[in-house]
Amino acid sequence: MKKIDYQNVKGTQDYLPEAETVRRKVRRTLEDVFIQYGCKPLETPILNYTELLASKYAGGAEILEEMYTLSDRGGRDLALRYDLTIPFAKVAAMNPGLKMPFKRYEIGKVFRDGPIKAGRFREFTQCDVDIVGVDSQLAEAELMAMGLEAFRRLGLNVVIQYNNRKLLTGILEVFGVPADKINKAVLILDKLEKVGIGAVISELSELQVSEAAQRLIERFLTDKDNRSLDYFVPYSRRNKLVKKGLEELLELMSVIDYLGIDGQCIFNPFLARGLDIYTGTIYELFLTDGSIKSSIGSGGRYDNAIGGMLGTDETFSTVGISFGLDVIYAAIDGKESASESGLDYFVIPLGTGKEALRLANELRADGYKVECDMSGKKLGKLLDKANKDGVRKVIIIGENEVKEGRYKVKDMVTGEEKVYSYRFR
């Protein structure tokens, strides 16, 4: 018989218990924060109709190239979700009776046939929060504050960079970029930190943006004053989008300043967020130590998605934020140990398997986390296992303990032993 060459599909990964213990701790921490902020749980299908995920209100051309597509036995065109945002917008569109504002969180796997790098795979887990029904920048500010709190609890120092798509789009209009090329120009600007100004201008040239517009954009990218909102005031008098984007940013800055988180939030006029879906404030979270260059969380306002799915021009104020569980794990890998097993007791039977299992079950019924050994290995090896697994309390049950109606609890840290009475029969 031919031996199978076992290997994972490229871009997927197994997480053995030590790694998965850390990942689940991250997940629980995020979920605790989400719940504390008043978010309700939601779960959406991994399988969706391709038409939904490829709609004009979805991720845009670039992300659609990475979408996994398939068909079922009925010949229907299906796709694996590439994020949790569009499935959520579908839920909001299908359930008009939802009470507003509606806050939801969802943690689930998504799939993208894209490039692989540190913390970024083709099957990965996203942790999302979205708010529907809040027009003001209070929603953005709360999600930004929530993100900072989540990473504080995870022991990671982050900074939030933020911008506004109206501001960026309006500036490009002022500079003379044609309307049909605005979105592609935004995608090019989104690569600025990765490829540099020269490459950005070169791509704008390939997009056939006029030389005059290229010069204005290059001047904008290199102007030292563009980090201040005052820089955009003159443009706001010439363009409605710049004016509206500036107003939203001023409102946001006022709120984050009042909340005392302005020191961890930085205005970045070049931040674009590559997805076409965004309509207002956008933000990305980065590790301050730079150990991972890509963002560790991101989000923004997307007011057109739900109405678009309903086939109407009506806008539904919607803001979201997303954290990548895999990239967070990559950031804390090595910094956080999973040596503590989480067990309260490790029960070691010495020829007393059924008695040990009975005691273990009674302790479990009392709410304790208990593992009962079934390997039959020697006591020394099992005590070594308990030490390596970080189990503090070990219960040893031999034939004498059963006869005498007692069991011994050994503290693996202090070495102290205590004896308790127990009726084994």
Summarize the topology.
Layout: H1 17-36, E1 40-41, E2 47-49, H2 50-53, H3 61-64, E3 69-71, E4 77-80, H4 85-94, E5 102-111, E6 123-132, H5 138-153, E7 158-164, H6 165-174, H7 182-189, H8 192-195, H9 197-206, H10 211-222, H11 233-236, H12 240-259, E8 265-267, E9 281-287, E10 297-301, H13 305-309, E11 318-324, H14 325-332, E12 345-349, H15 353-365, E13 370-372, H16 379-389, E14 393-397, H17 399-404, E15 406-411, E16 417-421
Parallel strand pairs: 1-5, 7-8, 12-13, 12-14
Antiparallel strand pairs: 2-4, 3-4, 5-6, 6-11, 7-9, 9-10, 10-11, 14-15, 15-16
Helix pairs in contact: 1-5, 1-14, 5-12, 6-7, 6-12, 9-10
What does this protein look like?
It is a single chain. The chain has helices at 17-36, 50-53, 61-64, 85-94, 138-153, 165-174, 182-189, 192-195, 197-206, 211-222, 233-236, 240-259, 305-309, 325-332, 353-365, 379-389, 399-404, and strands at residues 40-41, 47-49, 69-71, 77-80, 102-111, 123-132, 158-164, 265-267, 281-287, 297-301, 318-324, 345-349, 370-372, 393-397, 406-411, 417-421. Helix 1 (17-36) packs antiparallel against helix 5, helix 6 (165-174) runs antiparallel to helix 12 (240-259) and helix 9 (197-206) packs antiparallel against helix 10. It is an alpha+beta fold and 425 residues long. It has an 8-stranded mixed β-sheet, with helices on both faces. Strands 13-12-14-15-16 form a 5-stranded mixed β-sheet, sandwiched between helices. It has a 3-stranded antiparallel β-sheet with strand order 2-4-3. It is 39% helix and 20% strand. Strand 12, helix 15 (353-365) and strand 13 form a beta-alpha-beta unit. Its EC number is 6.1.1.21. It comes from Rossellomorea oryzaecorticis.
